[in-house]
From TrEMBL, chain A:
Pfam families: Response_reg (PF00072), Trans_reg_C (PF00486). This is Response regulator. Residues 2-116 form the Response regulatory domain. PROSITE patterns: OMPR_PHOB (PS51755), RESPONSE_REGULATORY (PS50110). The lineage of its organism: Bacteria, Pseudomonadati, Pseudomonadota, Alphaproteobacteria, Rhodobacterales.
TrEMBL record, chain B:
Keywords: Signal. One of its GO terms (cellular component) is outer membrane-bounded periplasmic space. It holds the Pfam family SBP_bac_6. Residues 1-18 form the signal peptide. This is ABC transporter substrate-binding protein. It comes from the Bacteria. The keyword Membrane does not apply. It comes from Tritonibacter litoralis.
From TrEMBL, chain C:
This is histidine kinase. SMART domains: HATPase_c (SM00387), HisKA (SM00388). Keywords: Kinase, Membrane, Phosphoprotein, Transferase, Transmembrane, Transmembrane helix, Two-component regulatory system. The lineage of its organism: Bacteria, Pseudomonadati, Pseudomonadota, Alphaproteobacteria, Rhodobacterales. It is found in: Membrane. It comes from Tritonibacter litoralis. SUPFAM superfamilies: ATPase domain of HSP90 chaperone/DNA topoisomerase II/histidine kinase, Homodimeric domain of signal transducing histidine kinase.
């Protein structure tokens, strides 16, 4: 996916950028509204992350500009202001969602997916491995053409694995992605979700292999 | 017994006062608790019914009715105002002056029109015109004169017939005569002309109405001028020799008046007596309790020329005025 | 801000009363003066009328005097007495003296000698009556020399007293009428004067608390400084309110942005660190950041809510719709925990309120539920009417029964929340919002387990 991050705080921007890149996405960064307008007018983005307080004005003016040009790239506003004062006007101006800083990346991803799902638009292709098809935007898994109902965490776990088949994921890595920091569960909880995923993939030629001491890997038989 | 002695004593005291009453009559029970002393110039016969009625209606009241002349009444009241409770007199001027001089007591419960009362103290209760009394026989062929003018014409036409046959009050001796004369003089210019005419004819002067009427009846005089009408009318009823004429041009009319003395010891009784008398004078129904001519209504008053109760009546009591008027009268009548 | 002393006004006197008392008091004084002046003047006129009559009487008697045959002759004219007739039948007395020698009338009447041709008026008493006396004299010349005639006429004052009483009564009525009229006028005047003030007060009172526009309606010139000050005060208030709102927003921004930076770095770093101690340290760090950012957020929210609750912007809104919007926004968060948000809002529920505050309150309640709800459980959000209320039910551990009364107090957290991030302000915020809307927050535990928080309006 291709993101545009409009954020004047370079430190924060860098942190966000490296985190997003880590997930394998592409991200452009604009520090000012001027730059942001330029980027959004010239480039194609799946999603814009917009800070509200910018040195050359209010992020809302970018939103207006953006919507005035009929660009339907969804915008998620990142705000450090009180939710109480900003929210309604932001949504009125055409932001698709908003998040308060500091934000959880998992939540950001979840919201991105939700927004993209609503907007039915993404450069992300449908992934096919063996007889399993996965639509990351719709969050849909088809096993031999039959839709399988996955819970959110199962879906996220499956997405992690399917995005890098044959790669080994350590338990900790999966845990970090699946659970938020206030979830008080042990890393062994991952085993439960792996177990559930295996049950969903029953009958297909895709399996999850346990590599003792190392982690898990998605394989095609 | 003791009461009798007391009565004798009181009678003696009255005698000591040396007051000669023309008449004196007691009404009501002799053992009454309160005695109302009425000093009057009106003969008791006129008020008999009213007085009897009063003592009958009021328990324990006696009236001592004392009759004397108007001048006497004036003198008595001025000398001994507290000895009498009610004063009735036909001399309006004297009554007014007594009232003005504070001898009368205001009676708040009695309401009368202005001209019938003065200072709420003095009340008129009869209207009595000055009349002309003529000898019936003498006037049989002449026709009865209706006005003073007609009378003057008659005198002028028949001077010999009337010479020394005309009578009127000697105003120097009669208060009423003086009163009638002054009112006549005030009412009409005719008076002085008339006086001169009768003066020329040698008018005889009398002190009292009674004498004049008797003289007319006997034919000593043929005409008596300014005789008290009520008095004459009573006489005429019984005596066909005389006739009473109330002049139609104007009839000087006096009122009998009544007041309660200022320091009366029986104010309530006196006031109710006055009310009783006025009431009797006003309503002649069912029986005529008051043998005196009634006060006419407002309309009748104009013709009657009732002398109103006014302080100006006092003017003729003034020594100087009296002297001046008498002088003029004398020069007109005595020739 | 809105404590009890705030609404209490220190009152000293009343403009209306002062105005009314001054006007009516003034009217009373004027009425009394009017009464006195009219009475005095009328009394003078009445007295002078009596004097003129007495004078006419005296003069007519003097004029009637003549010397005839070398003797003084006075024939009193009838009019000399008849003009003295009065309504009250006043007594009258007179005395005629020639060269100081009593001639006629009332001998004992006391009078004052007056020079020839003059007339004197004075008060006197005779026989217990108050009298007004006029005395005049005239010199007559005859053949035997000259003689002086003095005439005094006295009249009682009863009729005059009657006239004076009538005049007094009429003057009194006049004074009273004047007073009554002036009182009515005063009432009207007071009303008319106070009316603009009352109107201004009413128009200011009628405004919503957030309406800080200047007063535009025309006011009398005298009120211009007050209204000017009021307008300027409101402008400054509006400005300072804007500033505090701005300040809160700025504060939030300043606190949260660095926290966001640190958190992002910590998260990124966590992905690269394998060693258990380091991972635990990083996780602890992130949790601490979350805690402090949430605390800061809630503190600022709370400040914002307190600020907004003071001048609540009410508008008619559908509680079901407001709740739906919020639940949609929170669903991704719930999904991450595999918790279902089950919204049951079958009908429109209309209330007057501030949507942002209501959503914030509800967010805190749902946040709480999300925190304590076990994974893959359901949180029920039920909107119903009569009375309008929103129930948030979870299947978590529920509220500690004995702490329920204290839970919505600032910074109190349930004793079983030790491991859960949260500042403890969530319930306080929800409670404040409920109270600002004239409602309540009711915390209960469900029989089948789990907490139930109800916002009721």
């Amino acid at each position: 996916m291709k993101f545009l991050l409009v954020e004047d705080n370079v430190e924060l921007a860098n942190a966000v950028i490296s985190r997003i890149k880590m997930d394998g996405h592409v991200i452009d960064h604009a520090e000012k509204i001027e730059d942001a307008k330029l980027f959004s007018d010239t480039g194609e983005y799946d999603l814009i992350l917009l800070d509200i307080m910018l040195p050359d004005g209010d992020g809302r003016s970018f939103l207006e500009h953006h919507r005035a040009r009929n660009r339907n790239t969804p915008v998620i506003v990142l705000t450090a202001r009180s939710e109480v004062s900003d929210r309604i006007s932001l949504l009125d101006l055409g932001a698709d969602d908003y998040m308060t800083k500091p934000f959880d990346h998992a939540e950001l991803q979840a919201r991105c997916r939700a927004v993209l799902r609503r907007n039915h638009g993404s450069s992300q292709p449908v992934i096919t491995i063996g007889d399993v098809r996965f639509d990351p935007v719709a969050g849909q898994v088809l096993v031999q053409g039959t839709p399988v109902k996955l819970r959110n965490r199962e879906l996220r776990l499956f997405e992690l694995l399917i995005n890098a088949p044959n790669q080994i994921f350590s338990k900790q890595k999966l845990f970090d992605r699946l659970f938020s920091f206030d979830d008080d569960v042990s890393e062994n909880a991952i085993e439960v979700y792996i177990g559930r995923l295996r049950k969903h993939l029953d009958g297909s030629n895709v399996t999850i292999t346990t590599l003792r001491g190392l982690g898990y890997r998605l394989d095609v038989k | 017994m003791r009461n009798i002695i007391l009565l004798i004593f009181l009678a003696a005291a009255n005698l000591v006062q040396a007051q000669d009453w023309e008449d004196r009559k007691l009404f009501g029970p002799s053992n009454a608790q309160q005695v109302l002393r009425v000093l009057s110039s009106t003969d008791v016969v006129y008020l008999d019914t009213v007085l009897s009625d009063f003592v009958r209606t009021v328990d324990g009241a006696q009236i001592e009715y004392l009759v004397t002349g108007t001048a006497d009444i004036n003198d008595i009241i001025r000398k001994d105002p507290d000895a009498y409770d009610v004063v009735i007199s036909s001399a309006m001027d004297l009554q007014v002056k007594l009232t003005n001089d504070g001898f009368a007591k205001p009676l708040r419960t009695i309401e009368r029109p202005d001209w019938m009362q003065w200072r709420q103290s003095l009340f008129g209760f009869s209207a009595e015109p000055a009349a002309i009394v003529v000898n019936t026989a003498a006037f049989k062929d002449l026709g009865l004169p209706r006005t003073r003018q007609e009378l003057i014409s008659l005198f002028r036409a028949e001077p010999d017939l009337f010479r020394d046959k005309i009578a009127t009050y000697d105003i120097r001796r009669s208060g009423l005569g003086y009163f009638f004369a002054t009112q006549d003089a005030r009412a009409s210019e005719t008076f002085w002309r008339f006086t001169e005419v009768i003066g020329n004819l040698g008018t005889r002067l009398y002190c009292c109405s009674g004498e004049m009427i008797t003289a007319v009846a006997k034919g000593d005089v043929l005409v008596a001028y300014n005789v008290l009408g009520s008095y004459a009318a009573t006489q005429a009823l019984a005596d066909p020799r005389i006739q009473v004429i109330v002049p139609e041009d104007f009839a000087t009319t006096m009122m009998r008046t009544i007041f309660v003395t200022r320091n009366t010891s029986r104010p309530k009784l006196a006031e109710s007596f006055v009310a009783h008398l006025l009431e009797a004078a006003e309503s002649r129904e069912p029986v005529d309790r008051l043998q005196l001519p009634p006060l006419e209504s407002e309309a009748g008053r104009e013709l009657q020329k009732v002398v109103p109760l006014e302080p100006s009546l006092m003017i003729y009591l003034d020594r100087l005025s009296r002297k001046a008027f008498t002088l003029e009268w004398e020069s007109a009548i005595i020739q | 801000m809105n404590d009890q002393n705030g609404d209490k006004v220190n009152i000293a006197g009343s403009l209306r009363n002062t105005l009314m008392i001054s006007l009516i008091g003034g009217a009373l004084v004027l009425a009394v003066i009017l009464y006195l002046v009219v009475r005095t003047y009328a009394a003078q006129i009445a007295q002078s009328t009596q004097d003129r009559i007495l004078s006419a009487s005296v003069t007519s008697i003097l004029d009637a005097a003549a010397i005839r045959n070398e003797a003084l002759s006075v024939e009193l004219p009838y009019s000399a007495f008849s003009i003295l007739s009065t309504q009250a039948d006043d007594r009258f007395f007179y005395a005629i003296h020639q060269d100081g020698r009593f001639l006629s009338g009332y001998e004992h009447m006391v009078f004052t000698e007056t020079p020839n041709g003059q007339m004197k008026f004075y008060a006197g008493r005779y026989d217990g009556s108050d009298l007004r006396i006029a005395t005049g004299s005239r010199r007559l010349v005859g053949a035997n020399g000259q003689t002086t005639l003095t005439v005094s006429v006295a009249q009682g004052q009863q009729s005059l007293a009657g006239v004076l009483n009538r005049i007094s009564r009429n003057a009194g009525l006049l004074g009273f009428g004047f007073f009554a009229l002036m009182t009515l006028l005063s009432l009207w005047l007071t009303y008319a004067t106070i009316a603009p003030l009352t109107r201004l007060a009413a128009s200011v009172q009628r405004r919503g608390p957030e309406d800080l526009r200047p007063v535009a309606a025309p006011v009398p010139a005298e009120m211009a400084p007050l209204v000017g000050s009021l307008n300027s005060f409101m402008r400054r208030l509006a400005h300072s309110l804007d500033q505090s709102e701005e300040f809160i927003a700025e504060a939030a921004h300043r606190v949260r942005t660095p926290l966001a930076t640190v958190r992002s770095y910590a998260e990124t770093t966590l992905q690269r660190v394998d060693k258990l101690e380091n991972r635990q340290a990083l996780r602890a760090m992130v949790r601490a950041i979350d805690e402090s950012s949430r605390a800061a957020g809630q503190l600022l929210d709370h400040a914002m809510i307190t600020f907004r609750a003071d001048h609540l912007r009410r508008s008619k809104l559908d509680l079901a719709e407001v709740t739906g919007d919020l639940i949609r926004a929170m669903r991704p968060l719930a999904d991450m925990k595999d918790v279902d948000l089950d919204l049951s809002a079958t009908q429109q529920v209309w209330i007057e309120g501030d949507a942002i505050l209501l959503q914030n309150a509800l967010r805190n309640l749902v946040d709480n539920a999300l925190k304590y709800a076990p994974a893959e459980s359901v949180i029920q959000i039920i909107v119903s009417d009569d009375p309008a209320n929103i129930r948030v039910q979870d299947s978590g551990p529920g509220f500690p029964q004995d702490e329920i009364p204290d839970l919505s107090t600032r910074f109190t957290r349930g004793s079983n929340a030790a491991e859960t991030i949260g500042s403890g302000l969530g319930l306080t915020i929800a409670q404040d919002v409920a109270v600002a809307h004239g409602g309540t927050l009711i915390l209960t535990n469900r029989k089948e387990g789990g907490a139930c928080a109800t916002l009721s309006f």
